[in-house]
Amino acid sequence: MHAYLLVGSGGDAINCEIDKLVKRISAKVIEFEIKKIEDVRKLIGFTKLKIDTATIVLVNNLQDLSHEAANALLKSIEEPQVNLFYILVTNNIHKVIPTITSRCQVIYITSQPANVSQEALDFDAMTIGEKLTFISQIKDRESALQFAETLINYYQHDLQDKVDIRAATNVKSADKLYLALLDNGNVKLQLLNFITHLV
């Protein structure tokens, strides 16, 4: 994998994960500040140079990129040189274009893992029937979005420092629910669809 997307808001936790990746890859780090298309063009100019030693391009605040800049960055990520790696950092995966997310290993970082919602814990322990009853009480889009965000945070916590297929699958399902709700999908239909994809 040549591209990693770190998702989280805790500065120390993010920096710790960056340090881990740098040590694992044994690479030097070059930080690029990217907001506009011109910034991405500078990065592309750099990545066209021959890179002989393992090098990591670090891009913070990916959520602030314009759509045009994000698409230009995507082209650099798609076919990197052998010695070139990317670490991209965002505090909101929903503001990152899906084509970038799909080309990265996504690492969710929780700065305060103890703060796990009791609602999410209770929901996760329910049977399918109980989950269906629970979601039938969610009437409006705002409540549904809040519920989806709570579950994303809960399943992200389960992924902290371990590989958990169930949690990874459920994070993706909760992400899809959140995005569908943002796109004005039918609230009841999206919640039902979400329940059918939980593992």
Explain the overall architecture.
- This protein is an alpha/beta fold and 199 residues long.
- It has helices spanning 11-25, 37-47, 67-78, 98-101, 118-125, 128-136, 141-159, 165-182, 187-197, and strands at residues 3-7, 28-32, 55-59, 84-90, 105-108.
- Strand 3 (55-59), helix 3 (67-78) and strand 4 (84-90) form a beta-alpha-beta unit.
- The longest helix has 19 residues, at 141-159.
- The chain is elongated and about 60 Å long.
- The two termini are 26 Å apart.
- Mean pLDDT is 84; it is low at 111-115.
Give the key terms.
199 residues; alpha/beta; 5-stranded parallel beta sheet; 9 helices; 54% helix; 13% strand; elongated
The total strand number stands at 5
**What series of H and E elements makes up the topology?**
EHEHEHEHEHHHHH
Q: How much is the average pLDDT?
A: 84
The general outline is elongated
Structural class: alpha/beta
Q: Strand portion, in percent?
A: 5-15%
Q: Low-confidence stretches at least 5 residues in length (pLDDT < 50)? A: 111-115
Please outline the major beta sheet: 5 strands, parallel
